[in-house]
Design goal:
With 290 residues, the protein is of the alpha/beta class. It has twelve helices and eight strands.
Length: 290
């Protein structure tokens, strides 16, 4: 079971939108040095929706090669086509990913039965640990707890990234899922509380720009140190909000550019952060000690 701060990694790009492999190598090494527990590659924050399938798979391969076993790599392989999700997951497994993260199928809005059958089909097709990902604010479909509990019975469905921010749902899942089923936050603002309630970590946007702080927050929360975790969480609170002033990953990519970690590239239909938000993001970075 992976525990701690798992970065929902951005995909660095040059100003023309082409992939920036050198910057990707640097930020992967930065995360390993900062104590990040695992790399979450090519998810929402990694702009998976704007990458071609060959690019998507090459980012996974590149992360696995560069990380070289130092920490786990969790590959985003979700899709709104079950066949595509199976193929992405199969190739990620063949190229050395340690686990896969599968978002609920977006846009086509399947029923709870459809969600169960989708994830069951992927789990049965590819023998790799798989983490479910529920983010109804982006997908227009909400996987309910009963469906998660059924899926948790499958041997290689090992966890859930919950981005609803609803801690009552997490408490219910903790009571009903097997002890070895991991619960991860997908919402930086409520991640500390989720971990203190028995969750295993945070798949974090904020970790892109504050990796050491997120790693320490998760470490303290996992140890049950509410006071210590709260001190860090309070410093990060403004940043957690600022990184969603526009659609993720627009603000976090801009913040990373300000630190010289990546270039300015982002792909349409996403656009660079509006100037009216610049000061607010910078103030939040300063408050976080960045």
């Amino acid at each position: 079971m992976i525990t701690g701060s798992i970065v929902a990694l951005v995909t660095p790009m040059h100003p023309d939108g082409s992939l920036d492999w050198d910057s990707l190598d640097r930020i992967l090494d930065m995360h390993i040095a900062a104590g990040t527990a695992a790399i979450g590659a090519v998810g929402t924050t990694g702009e998976s929706a704007t990458l071609s399938v060959p690019e998507h798979l090459e980012v996974i391969r590149h992360c696995v090669r560069q990380v070289n076993g130092r920490i786990p790599v969790i590959a985003g392989t979700g899709a709104n086509s079950t066949r595509e999700a199976i193929e992405l997951t199969r190739v990620a497994a063949a190229n050395g990913a340690d686990a896969c993260l599968l978002v609920t199928p977006y846009y086509n809005r399947p029923s709870q039965r459809g969600l169960y059958e989708h994830f069951r089909a992927v789990a049965e097709a590819v023998d790799i640990p798989q983490v479910l990902y529920n983010v109804p604010g982006r997908t227009a479909v909400d996987m309910d707890n009963d469906t998660v509990v059924r899926l948790a019975e499958l041997p290689n469905v090992v966890g859930l990234k919950d981005a609803t921010g609803d801690l009552s749902r997490v408490a219910d899942l903790k009571a009903r899922c097997p002890d070895d089923f991991a619960l991860y936050s997908g919402d930086d603002a409520t991640a500390m509380e989720l971990i203190l309630q028995g969750g295993q970590g945070n798949i974090s946007v904020t970790a892109n720009i504050a990796p050491r702080q997120e790693a320490e927050l998760c470490r303290l929360a996992l140890a049950g140190d509410r006071a210590g975790a709260t001190r860090i969480n309070d410093r990060l609170a403004a940043l957690n909000r600022a990184l969603f002033l526009e659609a993720n990953p627009i603000p976090v990519k801009w913040a990373m550019q300000q630190r010289g970690l990546i270039e300015s590239g982002i792909r349409l239909p996403l656009t660079p952060l509006e100037e009216r938000y610049h000061a607010q993001v910078l103030e939040a970075m300063e408050a976080a000690g960045i």
